[in-house]
Amino acid sequence: MNNSFFAMFSRMKYIDRWALMRNTRKENLSEHSLEVAAIAHALAVISNEKCGSGLNAERAALLGIYHDMPEIITGDMPTPIKYGNPDLKAAYKAVERETAEHLVSLLPEYMQETYKGFFVKDEEDKELWRAVKAADKISAFIKCIEEGKAGNSEFDGAKKSITELIEKLDYEPATIFISEFIEAYSCNLDELQS
């Protein structure tokens, strides 16, 4: 159907993440994308203020909003499967690319070029996509903290592996974000307000 892009976008709320894990609280793709957008924006601001970059923080937020939109069609494939071997990873990336092209085609033609830039990782946005990737990992780390706080040890292994992934990114803004903001995620509401 023509002009159905935003109706498709609104369906992100129906895609649950962490399908193979026992969750104390479900997390949907819409919630995740909002959190990634906010963190990607923060990482770009940190990069600008602490590392001397000249990133467009607002664009980082927009890339974060749309970064997982193809999963409306593909679903949220578990990481061990998605990245289990090089052939499967390449095939999944091709499916994601085709899905993104299809989603963009659901817009009026005069909007397509602008929105295509939210899905295609071009060289100009390389550092912004780096912020989005780090934000995506930090969001997953936060989910692990929240599940652990609720007494769910199911996410302990994921927390360890995500910590290693974040360290491998070797991305100073992510290190700064974690050192300055992550501790608060272990607090209750009263502690957050004091």
Describe the structure.
The protein is mainly α and 194 residues long. 65% of the residues lie in helices and 0% in strands.
Q: SSE layout and pairings?
A:
Elements: H1 5-9, H2 29-51, H3 57-66, H4 71-74, H5 79-82, H6 86-105, H7 109-116, H8 126-149, H9 156-169, H10 172-181, H11 189-193
Helix pairs in contact: 2-3, 2-8, 2-10, 3-8, 6-7, 8-9
Q: Multimeric state of these chains?
A: single chain
Strand percentage lies at under 5%
The first-to-last residue Cα distance is: 51 Å
| Main beta sheet strand tally, sense and closure | none
Low-confidence stretches: none
Q: How would the global form be characterised?
A: globular
Q: In terms of structural class, how would the helical and strand content be classed? A: mainly alpha
Count of β-strands: 0
Order of helices and strands: HHHHHHHHHHH
Radius of gyration: 17 Å
What fraction, in percent, of the residue positions are helical? 55-70%
Total count of helical runs of at least 4 residues: 11
Mean pLDDT across the residues is 93
In short:
The protein has 194 residues and is mostly helical. The protein has helices at 5-9, 29-51, 57-66, 71-74, 79-82, 86-105, 109-116, 126-149, 156-169, 172-181, 189-193.
Characteristic key phrases:
194 residues, mainly alpha, 0% strand
